[in-house]
Amino acid sequence: MNDQTALLIFAKYPHPGTVKTRLANRIGDETATKLYSAFTEITLQRIRKISKKDCIIYFSPSQDESLFRSWLGEQFQFLPQCDGVLGERFIHAFSRLLPEYKNVIALGSDSPDLPLDYIQRSIDSFKENEAVIGPSSDGGYYLIGLKNSRPELFKEIPWSTPEVYERTLAKAMVLGLSMKMLPPWYDIDTLVDLHRLVRSETPGFQAAFKPYKHLLKDLDGLG
To answer: Among 27, 33, 115, 160, which is least packed, fewest CB within 10 Å?
Structure first.
């Protein structure tokens, strides 16, 4: 077993019309797609600054690996997502990687200004806990990590609803998992979220975001 913690990044290939669809309704497919690409690149850039932990891109669609490698580079490992709902993809990822790694932490790229301290705290949490979770403002979670594969944790969860986080905590309690709770954060799904992102004071974020700010040149005109 690798004695490291793997950081698993859920990512879709930015085909127009398939990413940031709620934002696209307000700002158009082209801008929403470019923003999603930017958020993914910023997330990976920032994560790689905190540690040399193995960073694995858990990508979809599964047939787009060559596109992902051209986009994100060969410095990452790539694992195709399985078919099915989000819970089935979590089960697949953790079951696949935990025999190889000591711990696995999964997160997305919808929170590009997530404080790196939160990720470091999630890594450190395994010294005393079997699991770690970071709640998001929409009722889901932006991060979840496990020391051992626990498929039951991801079953019978009402995905894409405000109940995801609370139901997951309840399931963890039933399973007897010792779980570390991180501070809440937010995903970028709406114009309100975008405005918050522009004002973000997360250390290091504005420098990483600067090359992409032109994508938001018309944001002030949107409510």
So the answer is: 160
